[in-house]
Amino acid sequence: MTDKSATASIFKRRESVARSYCRGFDTVFTSASGSYLKDAGGREYIDFLAGCSSLNYGHNDPDMKAALIEHIAGDGIAHGLDLHTDTKSGFLTAFDEHILAPRGMDHKVMFTGPTGANAVEAAMKIARKVTGRNDIIAFTNGFHGVTMGALAATGNGYHRGGASAPLNGVMRLPFDGYMEGLDSAAYLEAVLKDASSGVDAPAAIMLETVQGEGGLNAASADFIRRVAALAKEHGALLIIDDIQAGCGRTGSFFSFDEMGVMPDIVTMAKSVSGFGLPMALVLVRPEYDVFGPAEHNGTFRGNTHAFVTARVAIEKFWADERFQSELVEKTTLIHTRLSELADLVPGSAMKGRGLMQGVDVGSGDLASAICARAFENGLVIETSGSEGQVVKVLAPLTTSKETFTKGFDILMDAARAVIGEMADTKIAAE
After folding, report:
1. CB 156: neighbour CB atoms within 10 A?
2. Which residue of 75, 108, 256, 309 pairs with 274 in a disulfide if CB–CB is 3.0 to 4.6 A?
3. Digit-coded pLDDT (tens) for 141-159
4. At what angle do helices 62-73 and 304-317 cross, to 10 degrees?
């Protein structure tokens, strides 16, 4: 048995069948830098997945890597529960100076367990404790995690089915644009005002401004403002889940920047560490910071190594306007190239906002085939949506224009080839 076959065999023999991404990208990756992955055979792949938006600043950013190596080499704290450390102080100082204070955000920073789902669980618990109410309003196609509380707020039937238990405490209403001709904000207003609607006054209204896993459904700023006003009017907290859409993914640090809203609670994870290290945050207005000591806790609440890299990420990319200005140009580039894909598929639709855009090609089979062919040709790209029908671009925000061009050329070649083969098959069948 060769080393390569032995490596492949161990995954089949010992790894749970719950594995997922590796099924579509059947190789063994060994190294990565910037927007590129390399496998055991030495082949390079352009990365348009970026750890599902956990690597917004690319793989192994040199400045974050140097700071982390220095910290480890100097016997810096590796694990500190929620003790005060110099690295936590450094992160909080940078986050306050460059992110919170410029936006007039007075939010407290709560370190939860290291996953986005744990941050969502904490946010829901806070809302219930503050208001004394039980129900959370969530939206169609929302994705908030797969732990039991977060899963109750998640719309995807496949993931909900994994619970094998009742999922309670959440009412689901139509997201912006869910049904043609339906004003979803007006519908929300109507059911909250009607004492006989069957929708009880909620503890919170929770949403993503762009539904990443749900198919890149982007809410309008008007919808978000109206929902925020309704939450306030009815004594509910507004929770914005910025786990995938935050940290620059939509073109600004928070996905709700410049929308004219101030969430009561914001959940963050994925790229908040800057380096792909596990860390999650709940930002909560001071008047709602109601948990007692360790009332929501976890052994790994606050990743000391992640504090090191997160501080560097903030100071490197968000201390001035240069990085955000670059994102505006890249947003236009992505939209232009994806429009070419949309033109190939009759009835397709552009989806998303900023640097989380894609094309709904109307078929999960077609989207999967395009992504599979792209992978064969050196591009890692995934699908999203209720049926996996959206070809989704989540490239690192630091991807150069040249690499974007190479990646989109691979994607377009793959799409043309797959669409052509499907057309030939149809003709032959007739």
Report:
1. 17
2. 309
3. 999 999 999 999 999 999 9
4. 150
> CA–CA separation, 125 vs 329, rounded Å?
40
**Rounded to 5 degrees, what angle do the CA atoms 211, 409, 395 make?**
35
Q: Tokens at residue 274, please?
A: 């800057």
Q: How far apart are CA 86 and CA 192, in angstroms?
A: 47
Please state, in angstroms and rounded to a whole number, the distance separating the CA atoms of residues 370 and 22.
17
Give the orientation angle of helix 364-376 with respect to helix 401-429, to 10 degrees. 120
Please tell me whether residue 402 adopts helix, strand or coil conformation.
Answer: helix
User: Which residue in 424, 54, 114, 91 sits closest to 275, CA to CA?
Assistant: 54
What pLDDT is attached to residue 430? 63
Tens of pLDDT, residue by residue over 66-94, are 999 999 999 999 999 999 999 999 999 99
Give the Cα separation of 405 and 66 in Å (integer).
Answer: 29
Q: How far is CA 163 from CA 134, 135, 142, 239, 329, in A?
A: 20, 19, 17, 23, 42
Q: How far apart are CA 109 and CA 96, in angstroms?
A: 10
SS3 348: coil
- Residues of the chain whose pLDDT is less than 50? 1-2
Question: Has this prediction a pTM greater than 0.70?
Answer: yes
List, for residues 111-142, the tens digit of each pLDDT value. Answer: 999 999 999 999 999 999 999 999 999 999 99
Structure tokens given for 205: 């209204």
- Kindly state the DSSP code that residue 389 receives in the 8-state scheme: -
Q: Is 29 helix (H, G, I), strand (E, B) or coil?
A: strand
Q: Which SS3 state, helix, strand or coil, does residue 158 take?
A: helix
Amino acid 5: pLDDT: 63
Which one, of 274, 318, 343, 328, lies nearest residue 62 by Cα? 274
Burial, 357: exposed, middle or buried (Cβ in 10 Å; 0-12, 13-18, 19+)?
Answer: buried
Rounded to an integer, what distance in angstroms lies between the CA atom of residue 414 and that of residue 375? 9
Q: What pLDDT score was predicted for residue 1?
A: 38
Say what the pLDDT of residue 2 is.
45
